[in-house]
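Appendix C: a fully annotated inverse folding record. The material below is reproduced so that readers can follow the format used throughout the book. The structure is listed first as tokens, followed by the designed sequence.
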């Protein structure tokens, strides 16, 4: 009987100890919702405290209000992780709202090169160990900023950036379509896992 009780307690601990990730936006084509403990939501929940990270896959029209943006920024400042992903226009709405508020900058351009490169030896995501980083279908760049580390480049423009914000962490990604089911491979799985590990530290 003690062994059964111990096993049940261990299973309960494992279930409740899992990281909880909130996914917002254009997530219909994503393959990772079943692979990771995520909660998919069309709108920002009233209570963000159950989540360790928020992943926003930008759509063409944002449902986020100004109050939502303030709450997301507060979530990051207090130790949460934030992934904000974009693609070429029009899939930039939520990302632009957030990055304008955080950095007074937004995504630009359109790049159709399939492979990005990393030249960062000691980046937050350690992407230098991945020889070919899938860029995405139709990607955008984000301006250089001294508060962010460029993790991957498309041509000579920043594609993936990371950094700390308050007590939390942020990733800005200009090519989230690499995470669509149609593009899924081992490298994409590895990238998704590295992003998650950085954001929930």
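Designed amino acids, in order:
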């Amino acid at each position: 009987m003690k062994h059964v009780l111990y096993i049940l307690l261990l299973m309960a601990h494992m279930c409740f100890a899992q990281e909880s990730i909130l996914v917002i936006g254009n997530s219909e084509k994503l393959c990772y919702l079943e692979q990771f403990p995520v909660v998919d939501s069309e709108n920002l929940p009233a209570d963000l405290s159950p989540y360790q990270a928020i992943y926003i896959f930008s759509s063409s029209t944002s449902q986020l209000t100004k109050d939502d943006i303030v709450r997301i920024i507060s979530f990051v400042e207090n130790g949460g992780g934030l992934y904000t992903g974009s693609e070429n226009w029009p899939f930039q709405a939520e990302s632009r709202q957030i990055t304008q508020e955080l950095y007074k900058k937004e995504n630009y351009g359109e790049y159709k090169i399939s492979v990005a490169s990393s030249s960062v030896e000691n980046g937050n995501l350690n992407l230098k160990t991945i020889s070919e980083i899938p860029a995405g279908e139709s990607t955008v760049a984000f301006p250089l900023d001294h508060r962010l580390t460029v993790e991957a480049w498309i041509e000579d423009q920043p594609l993936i950036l990371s950094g700390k914000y308050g007590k939390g962490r942020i990733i800005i990604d200009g090519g989230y379509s690499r995470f669509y089911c149609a593009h899924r491979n081992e490298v994409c799985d590895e990238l998704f896992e590295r992003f998650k590990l950085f954001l929930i530290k």
